Amino acid sequence: MFDTLLIANRGEIACRVAATARRMGIRTVAVYSDADANARHVAACDQAVYIGGSEPRASYLRADAILQAARDTGAGAIHPGYGFLSENEAFAEAAEKAGIAFVGPPASAIAAMGSKSAAKSLMEKAGVPLVPGYHGDNQDPQFLKTQADAIGYPVLIKASAGGGGKGMRVVESSGAFLDALASCQREAASSFGDDRVLIERYLQKPRHIEIQVFADTHGNCVYLFERDCSVQRRHQKVIEEAPAPGMTEERRRAMGEAAVAAARAVGYVGAGTVEFISEPDGRFYFMEMNTRLQVEHPVTEMITGHDLVEWQLRVAAGQPLPARQEDLRINGHAIEARIYAENPEKGFLPSIGTLAYLGLPPHTAFANGEIRVDGGVRMGDTITPFYDPMIAKLIVHGADRDQARARMLQALAQTQAVGVQTNVAFLSRLMKDSAFAAADLDTGLIERQRATLLPEPEAASASTLALASAAVLVRQGLAQPGQQAAGKGPGDPWDARDGWRLGNQYQRHLQWVDNGETRRVAVARQSGAWTLDTGAGPQAFLWRSHASANPNLAYGLRITLEGHESAGTVVLHADRAYVFGEGGVHVLDLYDALTHSQDTQGDHGAGLAAPMPGKIISISVKAGDTVEKGQPLLVMEAMKMEHTISATADGKVAEVFYGVGDQVTEGAELVAIE
C-alpha cells in the first residue's frame, strides 16, 4: 500500500476520500484554488498544495499542476474523486507514465467508456439492448436534425463525453432542434472540452437504475447491487436509494451480470457504474458507464457494509477485491438526499452566498450509521459560482424503505441553513409525496408532481410569528417568563429580565414582512401574564429557549400560544428571521420604518434581472427589437450550466445593458423592455 495519496478534487468527495485514507493510515495531500484557500478539504488533509485560480480550468482541470504537486509531495497515488479529471484518459495515462498510481480504471477503459457513442457501439456488439438513436461521428447539425426527425420526437440530445446532466436537452419538435443542439454543444464544450453529441429516443416514464461494479487486476469482477436514481431535476439526480424499489431477484441478477460483462469487455479495474434506463414493463437499456466513483456511492455502502473508497485504494495498490460475489448481501434500505444551495421555486437556480448558519442532525460523518452526513462545507464558508453548489449529502439507513423514508424526514427537519437558498423544504415535501411514498418512480416524477412539490408560498401561521417574535425578545435579553438573569439571586428586582415596568405593564410592537405583506404583532405583559396578538386578539403566550449550535445567532424555542405548543429553531440574521419547523423554513423580514423610508421608486418595472451571478454567453436581441412573451433574449452560464433569460411580456427592447463575455451579479438588470 502506498503511504501518501494526493486527492485531485475538492469539497465533499475530497473530504470523503481523506476520511478513509486517514483510517487506513495513509498520508493525504490536498490541492486547492484561490477560492478554496480556507476550504474544509484543505483542513482535512495532512498537506495542501496551491494549484491556481478559482475557475476550474485554472486549477482543478490543470493536469500538469496536479501531477507536479504529486511529484513534489512524494505521492504514490492520485485519487481523482468525481468530476474534473476523474474520467480524463490523458490524465490517467500521464499519471501512469509518471509512476504514480491512478485510483481508477486504466486509460484504455476510460477511453472506451468515456465516449457515450463508442460505449454504445461496444454494448451493441456485446448484445446489450440500446435505446433507439444515433451514436455516430457525423456531427453536422443538419445531419443530426435529419437523424432526430427519423427517430421521432421527443428526442434527447446528450453530450457524448458528458455526465451530471450537463450538455443534455429534451427536444419536443423538429423546429426546436437546432437551437437546443447549439446550446448542448456550448455547454458540453465548456464542461468537458468536447462538443460532440448523440441523439436518442426520449422514453416515456422511464426509471434510471444503475449497477455498482468493481474489478481488480487479478481478474475478479463483482456487482454490488443497484441504485435507483430516477428522481431528478434538470437531468441531475436529487434522490438516490438502494436497493431499487420493486426490483426482482431475476432482474437484479440480469442487470448485474450485464454490468459485469460490460466492465470485462473493456478490461475494467476499480469502481465503476453501469447506468441503465428501465421501462415500466421491466425492459432495460444501456445508457452509459461512469468510470469513477459516483456521488451516490454511500447508499451502496449503507446496504452492503463495505467502504468503497477503501476498495478503490486496495485495488489501486494491486490487492484483490475484499469480497466475492457470493459474499455480498443486501441489508435494509438506504436513501440519499443531496442538499443543494439552490432555489427550487426559481427553476432550481444555484444560490450564491455565505453559510451564516448551518445546523445538522446528530450523525456520523463519512461512515455508516442510521444518519450519515458527507459534507464539504462548514458554517461560515461561501458557496461560490465556480463549483457545484452542493452543501452536503444526507444519507439514512432503515430496516426497510418506509423506515428509511421516515428517518430521512426527521433528518431533513433538523437540517437548517441560512445565507443561501436551499432545497431542504422541497426534499421534505418530496419524501411526503404520495407517488414517492408508493415508490411510483420515474425521471418525470418531480415535473409531474410540481403542483404539490412546488406550491405557492403560504402566509406565516400565528405560531410562526410567535416563534420569530420570541426570538427577538430572547436576543434583546428578555428572560423567559418567571426566570431571573443567569447567575443572579431571586430576590433583587433590578436583576430581573422579565419585562417588568413601572405600572407593571410591558408592550412591544413588531412588524414582520411576510412575502411582501406586513404582519403586525403585539407582545404585552400585564401583572406577570404575557399575551401575543397577531391580529385576532390577545392570546396567552409563554416561551422557553434552549441551547442551539450557535447561541449568538440561533435560538431553540418552545412556545405556548393559547394552550397550543409549538417548537422550532429561529435564526436571526441581517434583519431576517428564519423560522425552522415542521420540516421547512419560513423567512420573515423585520420591518424597519427608518430603512424603508429611504426606498426609491425608480425600479425598472419591465426590466429583466440576472437570477444568479454568471457570465453572458449569447445575446439574441438588440435595442429596438420587438419581442414576444416567452421569447429567449440571452443565455447566461453559471456553475457550468446554461440558463436562458426569456421575455416576461410582449414589448420592445429599449436597451441591452451587457455584452457577450460580461460577468454579472445577481439582480443586475440585463435587458429593459418597454
List keywords for this structure.
674 residues; alpha+beta; 8-stranded antiparallel barrel; 5-stranded parallel sheet; 18 helices; 25% helix
Q: What does this entry look like structurally?
A:
The chain is an alpha+beta fold and 674 residues long. 25% of the residues lie in helices and 32% in strands. Strands 27-28-29-30-31-32-33-34 form an eight-stranded antiparallel beta barrel. A hairpin with a 2-residue loop joins β27 and β28 (517-526). α12 runs antiparallel to α13. Mean pLDDT is 90; it is low at 484-491, 499-503 and 594-606.
Spell out the blueprint of helices and strands.
Elements: E1 4-7, H1 11-23, E2 27-33, H2 40-44, E3 47-52, H3 63-73, E4 77-79, H4 89-97, E5 101-102, H5 107-114, H6 116-125, E6 133-134, H7 141-151, E7 155-159, E8 168-171, H8 177-192, E9 197-201, E10 207-215, E11 221-228, E12 232-233, E13 236-237, E14 239-242, H9 249-265, E15 270-278, E16 284-290, H10 297-304, H11 308-316, E17 333-340, E18 342-343, E19 349-350, E20 353-354, E21 357-359, E22 364-365, E23 371-375, E24 382-383, E25 390-398, H12 401-413, E26 416-418, H13 424-432, H14 434-437, H15 445-448, H16 450-453, H17 462-475, E27 505-514, E28 517-526, E29 529-533, E30 539-546, E31 554-561, E32 564-573, E33 576-581, E34 584-590, H18 593-596, E35 607-609, E36 614-619, E37 626-627, E38 632-638, E39 641-646, E40 651-656, E41 663-664, E42 669-673
Parallel strand pairs: 1-2, 1-4, 2-3, 4-5, 22-23
Antiparallel strand pairs: 6-9, 7-8, 7-9, 10-11, 10-15, 12-13, 14-17, 15-16, 17-25, 18-19, 20-24, 21-26, 23-25, 27-28, 27-34, 28-29, 29-30, 30-31, 31-32, 32-33, 33-34, 35-42, 36-38, 36-41, 37-40, 38-39, 40-42
